[in-house]
Design brief:
seven-stranded parallel beta sheet; alpha/beta; Rossmann fold; 13 strands
Length: 432
């Protein structure tokens, strides 16, 4: 008889973006390891994008519990005169620079909506799930954040059902996430965020994180147990027949593109090579698929590269996979700002590896992502400021493109398949 695991997640089908994929895929494969997932998610959430392509991953008889959530975004829309706009993830500004009303709303969000704007769902969720669990026992509870309010639902249930093991899954950091300082926190608010983060880390039976760097960071908060389960790729998503490669020398970025990832030196070098090499100029193509901050477009225009740009606001996951496979080069961008971002390990990296196209990556050369690129031979990690290496790498890739030999032989990527990672998760659940 299958054991039951209650998974508490804000992001669920039909949400698009990276936040939904991790637990949709776990829910897909856990039954093959003897665990029946039960999903608890909002009835009326605010998703930055919609993607129905994940419906194929989930069995029609999976139990999904939903209750209404109140979120303050309508107040934000009235304040900023953005009545019909969707809420952007990751501090993306697509159309204009941030105005004072936006800055005010960010300050309110950081200082008063702690840990995040979904906090108003915590108490009603704990009440609802307490009644549910009294009649429908489960063997395990998992919360996944961000939003980190989900973990406080888990904490509330742990107090009522101390015998049920609780796992807190951190897909991203909390106080070390790249936009944390942009919240303009008061000293008191900063202390509260850190205190609450520590409380969750120490209260959960197991903390699960996505990288070794995150494990090292959060281990300082003394969790009872901490495990690493990276993100990955689903072999079922990979087309059986290979897509035709782009005719042009395409450099493609797929996913959210913030101002903190903007590789200004890449645009500078591409512009230089275009001026030096007419053949390169005739073949260059820059493809940006997903939401892109306006500052990135400004940089591309500054270096006179806008004529090479093809921009697509959003593609369903299956179409994004096709574009990964057809691109000549895949662009992976971590964070180009002050701070320790060595632990960043995006889900995009693993899908890029599965596409088996060369990965041109920018970020810490001694970080977790760089180690995986070296281990698999999937691509090259370059420091954002290293203009010499950027130029030489681009020219080397272009030479291979011209001779139709631009390939990579990614090795050992199977360990990052969603099925393999679900097996890893099931072993942790069984040990609990």
């Amino acid at each position: 008889m299958a054991k039951k695991v209650l998974i508490i997640t804000y992001y669920w089908i039909p949400s698009g973006g990276s936040g939904v994929q991790r637990w949709v895929k776990f829910a897909k494969y856990l039954p093959s390891f003897g665990w029946e997932p039960i999903i608890y998610t909002p009835q009326n959430p605010e998703f930055p994008s919609i993607d129905n392509s994940f419906e194929k991953d989930i069995a029609s008889d999976i139990k999904v519990l939903k209750t209404p959530i109140w979120e303050p975004y309508n107040v934000y829309r009235k304040l900023t005169n953005k009545k019909n706009e969707t809420i952007n993830a990751g501090f993306i500004s697509e159309g204009k620079k941030t105005g004072w009303k936006d800055k005010l709303s960010i300050w309110i969000r950081g200082n008063f909506l702690i840990p995040d704007p979904r906090r108003f769902w915590i108490k009603p969720s704990v009440r609802y799930l307490t009644e549910y669990l009294q009649k429908n026992p489960v063997d395990m509870i998992i919360t996944t954040g961000p939003p980190h309010s989900m973990h406080f639902i888990g904490l509330g249930l742990k107090k009522r059902f101390p015998e049920i093991p609780w796992i807190a899954d951190f897909r991203d950091p909390w106080t070390n996430i790249y936009f944390y300082k942009e919240l303009k926190l008061s000293k008191l608010a900063d202390q509260i965020h850190h205190k609450l983060e520590k409380k969750i880390i120490q209260s959960a039976d197991i903390v699960v994180v996505v990288s070794n760097g995150m494990k090292e960071e959060l281990s300082r908060l003394q969790p009872k147990q901490i495990e690493v389960i990276t993100n990955g790729f689903d072999e079922d998503d990979i087309p059986t027949s290979k897509s035709n490669l782009d005719v042009k020398f395409s450099i493609s970025h797929i996913g959210l593109f913030t101002e903190y990832q903007n590789p200004k030196n890449l645009w500078k070098i591409l512009s230089e090579i275009c001026n030096e090499n007419p053949d390169f100029k005739s073949n260059l193509q820059i493809k940006l698929i997903g939401k892109v901050d306006f500052s990135v477009i400004e940089s591309i225009q500054q270096y006179n590269l806008d004529s090479f740009l093809i921009q697509t606001p959003y593609l369903p996951h299956n179409k994004a996979i096709e574009n990964q496979q057809s691109s000549q080069i895949l662009l992976l961008l971590l964070m180009n700002k002050t701070g320790n971002y060595k632990s960043i390990l995006t889900g995009k990296l693993f899908e890029y590896l599965a596409a088996k196209r060369p990965i041109l990556a920018f970020g810490p050369t001694d970080g977790d992502a760089a180690a995986i690129l070296t281990e698999t031979g999937g691509g090259t990690m370059i420091d954002f400021s290293d203009e010499k290496t950027i130029k030489q790498t681009i020219l080397d890739y272009y030479t291979s493109y011209k001779t139709k030999s631009l390939v990579v032989k990614s090795e050992s990527v199977e360990r990052y398949s969603r099925h393999s990672l679900s097996g890893q998760l099931s072993r942790i659940l069984n040990n609990l």
